[in-house]
Amino acid sequence: MSSVINIQELEQQFKKAAVVDVKSGDTVRVHQKIREGSKERVQIFEGLVIRVDRKASHTASLTVRRISSGVGVEKTYLLHSPLVMKIEIIKRSKVRRNYLSYMRARTGKSARLTGMAFDKEAVNAVHDVKAEAEEEKLKEEVAAAAVADAEAKHEAEAKLEAKAEEAIAKHDETKA
After folding, report:
1. Global pTM value
2. Dihedral sign, Cα of residue 156, residue 158, residue 162, residue 168
């Protein structure tokens, strides 16, 4: 019995402290951290939640679908993944199922869902201090890189300007 408790404690360590209560039929904006080489950036994927699995578990996931350039794109996200920075609920729709697979066959007006009134601020007001700190750090790194690039560009321009002045001075000496 003690091994079961240890596994549950281990699972609790990897769970996020607070997660947005996402339901099927919600239109969400998922902020995902993407690493490309040595650079990191946040990519936003907006679409309809067609499935929510294992809400209480640390392996909770949601499947988000959107139409991009006429092609249906689905992405499955783990809610407690450290790569998922933030999930914003934009619209909440009235649905009676958990798995909206029928939405795959629908396009255009037939793909519309009836909206429901909900308090956006209250639903999205989930503060994960760890994730917010990491997002701040990412923004600071991007800002620092931009400042470094601007300084390097300024130095290069100063060198070119000095070289141009030197060339003008030589030209004036040869004329005189």
Report:
1. 0.63
2. positive
